[in-house]
Design a protein that fits this description.
CATH class of the largest domain: Alpha Beta
CATH superfamily of the largest domain: Mannose-Binding Protein A, subunit A
Radius of gyration: 43 Å
Pfam families: Lectin_C
CATH topology of the largest domain: Mannose-Binding Protein A, Chain A
Helix content: 25-40%
Largest sheet: 8 strands, mixed
Bound molecules: 2-acetamido-2-deoxy-beta-D-glucopyranose
Structural class: alpha+beta
Number of domains: 2
Number of strands: 10
Order of helices and strands: HHEEEHEHEEEEEE
CATH architecture of the largest domain: Roll
Distance between the termini: 87 Å
Protein name: C-type lectin domain-containing protein
GO molecular function: carbohydrate binding
Keywords: Lectin, Membrane, Transmembrane, Transmembrane helix
């Protein structure tokens, strides 16, 4: 084989930029441990940064979870459309174009998953009588004595609490009077309101169950958690 004369070292044969690089190489090897240390330091910094990011995120998550349960979430009482919320109860006041007999009113309320109103406190009485009755409105309430004359029962079968009855008593009317001139069966269903009957909190009177009036339904408000 024809062996050519060895030429000078490779870096001598290469162009100007390359010989500089190759000259640098031995120096680079000498510096390698230092560079490695630097690289390690950089890696460590990066790791710390990543760790810090995670910790920050974890703190965020923790804070989010805390605020989520402590302040952002709350249980809210709600009523269906057309029902009015007061406290824990929802009320439906039928309008003038929806006037029914007492029994049909009760059926209507029950078809709306409620019942005719049962007045169980002075607050409930104030809210429903004085606020509506002053407008000269009258409404059926869930009180009847059609089973036994004079024994007033709510639609759930519970008797009327003597200390929570609001029958009208004034110079013109002492209710209930079971007036028989309009209906021979007498008056066995209770109405709330109508300004001439309102005397303080007292605003109930009995009427013929066959008459058609507006009515008030009641049901428990639904509770739902809202978070925002
Ligand atoms: C914490 O909540 C904020 C604001 O709602 C949101 O931008 C962030 O992504 C949440 N952080 C985590 C870790 O879920
Ligand atoms: C009265 O109530 C009925 C039944 O809820 C409803 O369909 C009707 O639109 C109401 N009328 C008025 C004038 O509000
Ligand atoms: C509930 O009824 C009471 C008593 O009438 C009244 O003071 C209050 O404002 C009502 N609350 C609502 C949310 O309507
Ligand atoms: C009747 O109402 C009064 C006053 O709200 C109450 O203290 C009492 O417990 C009630 N009685 C019955 C049997 O529910």
């Amino acid at each position: 084989p024809h062996l050519s004369k060895p030429r000078g070292p490779m870096w001598q044969r290469l162009g100007a930029p390359w010989n500089k690089v190759l000259l640098f190489f031995p120096t680079f090897i000498l510096l390698l441990p230092l560079l490695l240390q630097l690289l390690l330091l950089l890696l460590l910094l990066l790791l710390l940064l990543i760790l810090a990011f995670f910790i920050n995120n974890l703190t965020n998550l923790f804070l989010n979870v805390t605020s989520f349960t402590v302040s952002t979430c709350s249980s809210v009482a709600q009523c269906d459309e057309d029902w009015e919320l007061n406290g824990t109860q929802c009320y439906y006041f039928s309008n003038r174009s929806l006037q029914l007999t007492w029994t049909s009113s009760k059926d209507k309320c029950q078809s709306k998953r409620g019942d005719l109103i049962k007045i169980e406190s002075r607050e409930e009485q104030v809210q429903d009588t004085l606020n509506r009755g002053k407008l000269d409105e009258r409404f059926w309430i869930g009180l009847t004595d059609s089973q036994t004359e004079g024994e007033w029962l709510w639609t759930d079968g519970s008797p009327l609490n003597q200390s929570l009855e609001f029958w009208t008593k004034n110079e013109h009317n002492t209710e209930p009077d079971n007036w028989k001139e309009e209906d021979v069966d007498g008056e066995n269903c209770a109405i709330i309101g109508e300004i001439m009957f309102i005397n303080g909190l007292k605003s109930w009177y009995d009427n013929s169950c066959k008459n058609k009036y507006r009515f008030i339904c009641e049901k428990k408000a639904t509770r739902s958690a809202t978070c925002g």
